[in-house]
Amino acid sequence: MALSASQPAAGVTVLAVSGEVDMVSAPALRDALVNGLADGGTFVIDMKGVTFLGSAGLAVLVEAARLAPQHSAALKVVATARAVTRPLEATGLGEVFSVHESVDAAVSA
């Protein structure tokens, strides 16, 4: 898994995630999310490059959804690949997250 954070606008943080999010890589994702959410504002998790999303990755996303309001952060997810959308839909988490098809759509929503 690879992570890359950017701030394309004031109050907006984008964390691009690529590769496999599994029990080995999920702790690094968790650390990046916890640190990023602490700043508040709009936080976009760009998962377009994710090729596998396992239960450990889903658990990290659920934790991020729980933490976001505590930091006055608006958490949004960008997901287009079936490797991400299918687990979100199958677990009902697609209803929990604000899911978008692009970073621009997520930021403007």
From TrEMBL:
<protein>
    <recommendedName>
        <fullName>Anti-sigma factor antagonist</fullName>
    </recommendedName>
</protein>
<dbReference type="GO" id="GO:0043856">
    <property type="term" value="F:anti-sigma factor antagonist activity"/>
</dbReference>
<feature type="domain" description="STAS">
    <location>
        <begin position="11"/>
        <end position="109"/>
    </location>
</feature>
<dbReference type="InterPro" id="IPR003658">
    <property type="entry name" value="Anti-sigma_ant"/>
</dbReference>
<dbReference type="InterPro" id="IPR036513">
    <property type="entry name" value="STAS_dom_sf"/>
</dbReference>
<dbReference type="InterPro" id="IPR002645">
    <property type="entry name" value="STAS_dom"/>
</dbReference>
<comment type="similarity">
    <text>Belongs to the anti-sigma-factor antagonist family.</text>
</comment>
<dbReference type="Pfam" id="PF01740">
    <property type="entry name" value="STAS"/>
</dbReference>
